[in-house]
Amino acid sequence: MSTRLxxxxxxxxxxxxxxxxxxxxxxxxxxxxxxQVYYLDEQHVALSCQFFxxxxxxxxxxxxATVVVYDPLSFDAWRLVVRxxxxxxxxxxxxxxxxxxxxxxxxxxxxxxxxxxxADVFEVIxxxxxxxxxxxxxxxxxxxxxxxxxxxxELRGLQKVSERIxxxxxxxxxxGGTLETLDELFHFSHSMVLVAESEGxxxxxxxxxxxxxxxxGAEVAxxxxxxxxxxxxxxxxxxxxxxxxxxxGRAIRGRVQECEGAARLAPExxxxxxxxxxxxxxxxxxxxxxxxxxxxxxxxxxxCFDEWDEAFxxxxxxxxxxxxxxxxxxxxESEQPAQAPLARPRQPRTALAPRCFVxxxxxxxxxxxxxxxxxxxxxxxxxKLLGQHRDAGRSEFSNRELRLDPKLGLPxxxxxxxxxxxxxxxxxxEKCPDVRLVPTGRGxxxxxxxxxxxxxxxxxx
Length: 461
Hints:
By secondary structure, the chain is an alpha+beta fold. It folds into three domains: about 5-130, Electron Transport, Fmn-binding Protein, Chain A (Pnp Oxidase, Chain A); about 155-240 and about 280-335, Beta-Lactamase (2-Layer Sandwich), CATH 3.30.450.40; about 355-460, Arc Repressor Mutant, subunit A (Orthogonal Bundle). About 30% of the residues lie in helices and about 30% in strands. The protein has helices at about 55-60, 90-105, 155-165, 170-185, 225-235, 240-260, 305-335, 375-390, 400-405, 415-430, and strands spanning about 20-25, 30-35, 35-40, 45-50, 65-70, 75-90, 120-130, 190-195, 200-210, 220, 235-240, 280-285, 290-300, 355-360, 365-370, 370-375, 395-400, 435-440, 445-450, 450-460. The strands form four sheets. A seven-stranded antiparallel β-sheet has the order 2-1-5-6-7-4-3. A six-stranded antiparallel β-sheet has the order 10-9-8-13-12-11, with helices on both faces. Strand 15 and strand 16 (about 370-375) form a beta hairpin. The longest helix is centred in the last third of the chain and has 27 residues, at about 305-335. It is elongated. The protein starts with 17 loop residues before the first strand and ends with a strand.
């Protein structure tokens, strides 16, 4: 049975760089690595054209080329004999190939420098294995017997994830429960959900699984790195062999620095999540044509994700986006009309450990005992709660009164208040566990203190 192009799906993941060989009209050869070999159909592939001026000149003079691709599991090598047909500088194919390069460029601080010039489409004339490329592997001692199918089918697993989302009573349990279920049933062991801030410039992680508390509060600017690029473009993207891609991008960055200096280069963007991730799959969360956030999963296995994961997580992402919108609407509808808060006399109590909270007005951030805690709207909310407790002895609050307070700067629509409160609660658990926001009902919560807060307000840090 002859091998088909679609059988080489792993070769097109980019885990092992492919090689392209061309000749000019006089027969002088040129061999170089190519960033992407993109599978189109059984007769066509596309190669990314970035810096390869010699390669492009050659195929315009002599449209024949040879591409060698490698299977990252078996290390088999395959030779594709191809003929150049056309270049595309816009359209769906160009956008799909450019998105991957745009992500690597953003991570390595080379946006606008490391970019796709064209997607070059080739007809595949011949496909053949490279004989003698590697030694024959020894035969396995015995075949592994097939494992019996378990009761949990893919459809049943999707049912359980959907059920967890539908039964969630609040946004925190919806997100946390969904990520836990994805790990329990399908082994997505490292995942996070980032929500879009109302200003539309940043994404903030409010739920994570597999990172401990370190994942909460991570911020990504729109357009930065894989997560920020997916959010800005609102398109799913899967990367395999991330480490190799970054090494390639950094090598190009070093060459640009040698030739042109560093003036055109931005600082390299740190990767949120696993520092040694080899595979990443990021999906935008869209509700009613509006970006509400991003679902990101990653793994140290470079071939962890495939087309099945894309399709499955797209369904889950749609449900998460709808759930976020539903929770926001439910929180608004179920709250009682606001009433004037009643001042409570301060009761004598035992001495508590002091904690010093400093709020910097110009930067909208709070430090506790000299350590950064939170910023922007969550910082304003915490400062309001602590001030009300100090001045009026209050400990019970509602989401409604926060929405009606103009000093917090919440927008009238899509304020993401629930997401901001989740972030604030988790940052307090991580950095200041003796100050807690405890939900007491839908849209209501209590401020609990096991410390004596001292409040200091300053203009700037």
